[in-house]
Write a structure and sequence with these properties.
Elements: E1 6-7, E2 13-18, E3 21-29, E4 44-48, E5 51-54, E6 65-70, E7 72-73, E8 76-78, E9 81-86, E10 103-112, E11 119-124, E12 129-134, E13 137-146, E14 154-160, E15 166-172, E16 183-190, E17 202-209, H1 217-232, E18 238-244, E19 248-250, E20 256-257, H2 260-273, H3 283-292, E21 300-307, H4 314-328, E22 334-340, H5 346-355, E23 357-363, H6 369-381, E24 383-390, E25 397-401, E26 409-410, E27 415-422, E28 428-434, E29 440-449, H7 455-474, H8 477-490, E30 497-505, H9 511-515, E31 529-532, H10 543-547, H11 561-570, H12 576-579, H13 583-589, H14 594-607
Parallel strand pairs: 15-29, 17-18, 17-21, 21-22, 22-23
Antiparallel strand pairs: 1-7, 2-3, 2-6, 3-30, 4-5, 8-9, 9-14, 10-13, 11-14, 12-13, 15-16, 16-27, 18-19, 18-20, 24-26, 24-28, 25-27, 28-29, 30-31
Helix pairs in contact: 1-2, 1-6, 3-4, 4-5, 5-7, 7-8
Organism: Panicum virgatum
Protein name: VWFA domain-containing protein
Domain VWFA: 203-388
Length: 625
């Protein structure tokens, strides 16, 4: 899908009803003390960057549990294929006794591609049957009685037929609840499968943080990813490597031409010079890279910055780099950034990449560093169209892109650009750019006014992250308030809001009616209590931790003690579904009848599907409902 997120219907969150109590996730303004009273301890949050949990207290024996979970996640794109993967494994301890209950699994999938081109199904983990096609909308269904619950995750892969560069513009009017009264648009370009399309020659400078906090697995993973990136360079490309901490250590005094010998020497140099020690200084290596790229040998200049820390002069770095890039004109270096762990300022890195027409990516645990970095290198280094501009926007009022500038088009990833405007768009827009031989290309983009695609929800996370980066850079309170409105409107936590679990007392009512969302009389506001959820935002970096070379911000988020006890108690593995429970659930299950215990455990496994909102921060492609 050429849209940034895949999402379930409604705003992200969870609703759980237990007996006479209802629990709902709710986003509140951190500056509004009257919004809700937090009178209970923490009751959930992130165990890992992709594992969200909730603790439901005081579950009595014999009580029925009803849970509804909504989440957002990105669709992956690789080698021309879009794919989605949803956790769908159930641990053994949720299985009922044999021949007692009939087990039935049902999967209903609707794909709304947003494009008029042909959609081709490439593969699925479960036997889906196509139920219908209507324009760009497809529906599939799987329903079967099974002997055991699913032992594999649900995956779905498809392609959009496109022989060459193609795209479209999706438009949706603003709503009364919207934070901005301008209409919104999403412009996307698919790279297509034209094997004759040439990739730009590159002049690359890799800037790698080797401060003391990078010691061990992080720096080793970065070195492995760097070796892969260097091996992907081809003859005609140029490169250099700068390792930085308090000082600079350069592989060469100038850009080196790519050949087998220089790549071998560079890998040997990394073995000797990628040593974790010292502090962090980002501006100095950036300036050195700019100087090295002042003569880029008629290749596309690119800078790759990798760091796990924050520094005091980040706003000054952004302003300085922006001025330097503007002075260079169309041949200015592209700046791509990669953040490791929680101590670096990811909004600074996102803004720097936006200014530099580059790509931002991140890894929050050591196990994902190498894979994510390799993808990031491939996405940013395979440019097939540069200096993209959109024709006819000069006649449109208040036209504004969410990102600072439009990125180049990569052969490895679709381009997605969103924004706002007043007025009326023409039926067709023209995207113009330059190919590797410096000839000009024009791509016709038809404007499609969507009705059944919740474009505001699909774009919300991307817009929030970019707005937050702008608010941080400009120290702008008005932009912060826009983020707050967007956050509350879409139930997505932000740096200026927080998510809580809101408990509400219900009148006595049949549980089956509660599950069907019948009208429920709620208690008065003073009977409602809220429990904070932790770890759902990134923050703006930690300069003190960086200065002290602390490494804890680079590890896994530590699980609460009760989860560790539970893991030992049931002997389950570290799969997402298996981990989702706690000791209070075990105690509650011991007081329940068998059927209720089974429903509870199934609800626990289902809640594991509630993904990490912060991990959708990078630009990605999605749009299936």
């Amino acid at each position: 899908m050429p849209l940034p997120h895949r999402r379930a219907h409604g705003s992200p969150g969870a609703e759980v009803t237990v007996g006479k109590r209802s629990y709902n996730t709710h986003v509140i303004d951190t500056d509004d003390n009257s919004a809700v009273k937090i009178s209970m301890p923490e009751s959930g949050g992130l165990l890992k960057q992709e594992l969200f949990y909730l603790t439901i207290p005081q579950v009595g024996g014999g009580e029925d549990i009803f849970a509804t979970i909504r989440w957002s996640q990105k669709l992956l794109y690789d080698n021309g294929q879009f794919s989605v993967e949803v956790p769908f494994r159930f641990p053994q301890f949720v299985n009922p006794l044999p021949k007692v209950f009939m087990k039935k699994e049902k999967i209903q999938l609707t794909v709304n591609s947003g494009v008029t081109k042909e959609i081709i199904l490439q593969g699925t983990s479960h036997p889906l049957k196509e139920k219908g096609r209507q324009g760009e909308k497809l529906s599939f269904l799987h329903e079967a009685a099974v002997e055991n619950w699913s032992t594999k995750d649900f995956t779905f892969t498809y392609t959009v037929y496109s022989g060459d560069l193609s795209g479209q513009v999706l438009v949706k009017p603003s709503t009364l609840r919207d934070y901005d009264d301008r209409d919104m648009f999403c412009l996307f370009l698919l790279p297509g499968k034209n094997v004759d399309r040439k990739v730009f020659r590159k002049a690359v400078v890799y800037i790698i943080d080797t401060s003391g906090s990078m010691q061990g697995k992080p720096l080793e993973s970065v070195k492995n990813a760097m070796s892969t990136a260097l091996s992907d360079l081809v003859q005609g490309d140029f490169f250099n490597i700068i390792a930085f901490n308090d000082e600079l250590h350069s592989f060469s005094s100038c850009l080196e031409q790519v050949n087998d010998k220089t790549i071998e020497n560079a890998i040997q140099w990394m073995d000797l010079n990628f040593v974790a020690q010292g502090g962090t200084d980002i501006m100095h290596p950036l300036s050195e890279a700019m100087t090295l790229l002042s003569n880029s040998h008629d290749a596309l200049p690119q800078i790759y910055l990798v760091t796990d820390g924050s520094v005091d002069d980040e706003r000054n770095i952004c302003h300085t780099v922006k001025t330097q890039l503007m002075n260079r004109g169309p041949k200015s270096p592209r700046v791509s950034t990669f953040g490791l762990g929680s101590y670096c300022n990811h909004y600074f890195l996102r803004m720097l990449a936006s200014i530099g027409k580059g790509h931002y990516a991140a890894a929050f645990d050591t196990g994902s560093i190498e894979g994510r970095m390799v993808q990031w290198f491939q996405k940013a280094s395979n440019t097939i169209v540069s200096n993209i501009s959109i024709d006819a926007i000069k006649n449109i009022q208040d036209f504004e892109l969410d990102s600072e500038y439009i990125q180049d088009v990569s052969a490895k990833y679709p381009l997605c650009v969103s924004g706002r405007y007043h007025g009326k768009l023409p039926e067709t827009l023209i995207a113009k750019g330059h190919l590797a031989d410096m000839s000009e290309i024009s791509i016709e983009l038809k404007v499609h006014h969507v009705k059944d695609i919740p474009l505001d929800k699909v774009l919300a996370k991307q817009q929030m992250d970019l707005l937050t980066a702008k608010a941080w850079l400009l120290e702008n309170k008005e932009l912060e308030r826009k983020v707050v409105k967007l956050s509350i409107q879409n139930s997505l936590p932000s740096e200026y809001t927080r998510m809580v679990l809101l408990q509400t007392s219900l009148d006595k009512i049949d549980p089956a009616q509660q599950a069907k969302n019948k009208s429920i009389k709620q208690s008065s506001p003073d009977e409602r209590s809220a429990m904070p959820l932790r770890g759902l935002t990134l923050g703006f970096g930690d300069v003190t931790a960086t200065r002290e070379n602390l490494t804890t911000g680079f590890g896994e988020i530590k699980s609460p003690e009760k989860f560790e006890i539970f893991e030992k108690a049931v002997g389950c593995c570290s799969r997402v579904a298996d981990c989702f429970c706690c000791m209070c659930f075990i105690k509650a299950c011991s007081k329940m009848n068998d059927q209720c215990a089974i429903v509870m455990m199934q609800a626990c496994a289902a809640l594991a599907c509630l993904g990490c909102f912060e991990c959708c921060s990078e630009l990605c492609c999605g749009g299936a409902n």
